[in-house]
UniProtKB/TrEMBL annotation:
It comes from Halobellus salinus. It holds the Pfam family P5CR_dimer. Keywords: Amino-acid biosynthesis, Cytoplasm, NADP, Oxidoreductase, Proline biosynthesis. Pathway: Amino-acid biosynthesis; L-proline biosynthesis; L-proline from L-glutamate 5-semialdehyde: step 1/1. The lineage of its organism: Archaea, Methanobacteriati, Methanobacteriota, Stenosarchaea group, Halobacteria. GO terms for biological process: L-proline biosynthetic process. This is Pyrroline-5-carboxylate reductase.
Length: 257
């Protein structure tokens, strides 16, 4: 049983709490200054609190607050060597957090799929942390990256779900225009992305080969793919990722000042 506290019960903090609760094997404390936020996650926690002192004995403390709130929390968060402080704040380095705590600092970039235990996460640490590794595995899949690549990870797997939701919505809306029921179109579009992603993860073939496998000569798929090949859709998606990466760097610069 791993004793975990999550500071901040907004969208991402709530997703982590929900996923850990569903995984089992965790004693979970949720902290927030907003009683309504605590009420929203209470069913997934062993304890909720508005007293920061209640999280100080946890083996792992997850700092799931916005970057500008991090310094305010660290002022009052007194952790010891041997504890682990996990930060998910975009643009806030481990060095910045480590200067304000005696705990071992691990930085992760998770995403909202933590709630359904299908999360993609990036982690940066000096040495692998057994408890954090277990948590990330229980919530989905993770990769280790150098901290200077966290800006890219923030854009890719952190912001990426919104980009995917946008594409699912575009497919759903056009299918509805073509006559499908909205709920049926939503299910088919979402499950298509889900199945395609699983295929990528479980296949040894590269993406070009997988595209070719769906495209029969003269068939429907290649007709649609020709529209994409002739468009700048790949550039637009790439530009969205670059814009998110640049914003992460801007946030880091602002926090360092």
């Amino acid at each position: 049983m791993i004793d975990v506290s999550v500071i901040g019960c907004g969208n991402m903090g709530g997703a982590l709490l929900t996923g850990l609760s569903r995984a089992g094997g965790y004693r979970i404390t949720a902290y927030d200054v907003d009683p309504d936020a605590l009420e929203a996650v209470s069913e997934h926690c062993d304890r909720t609190t508005t007293d920061l002192g209640d999280v100080r004995d946890s083996e792992v403390v997850v700092l799931a607050v916005k970057p500008d709130i991090v310094p305010l929390v660290l002022e009052d968060l007194d952790l010891r060597p041997g504890q682990t402080l996990v930060t998910i704040a975009a643009g806030v380095s481990r060095a910045q957090v480590g200067a304000e705590t005696d705990a071992t600092v691990v930085r992760i970039m998770p995403n909202l799929a933590a709630e359904t235990r299908a999360m993609a996460a990036a982690v940066s640490w000096d040495d692998p942390d057994e408890h954090v590794g277990q948590m990330l595995s229980d919530l989905g899949a993770y990769v280790e990256v150098d901290e200077d690549l966290m800006h890219v990870a923030t854009a890719l797997n952190g912001s990426g779900p919104a980009f995917v939701f946008y594409l699912i919505q575009a497919m759903q809306e056009r299918a509805v225009e073509e006559g499908l029921d909205p709920d049926d179109a939503r299910t088919l579009a979402a499950q298509t992305f889900n199945g395609a992603a699983e295929t990528v993860l479980r296949s040894d073939r590269d993406l070009d080969s997988l595209i070719d496998a769906v495209c029969s000569p003269g068939g429907t798929t290649i007709e649609g793919m020709e529209v994409l090949f002739d468009s700048d859709a790949d550039t637009a998606v790439g530009d969205a990722l670059t814009a998110a990466r640049k914003r992460s760097e801007e946030l880091a610069g602002a926090d360092a000042e």
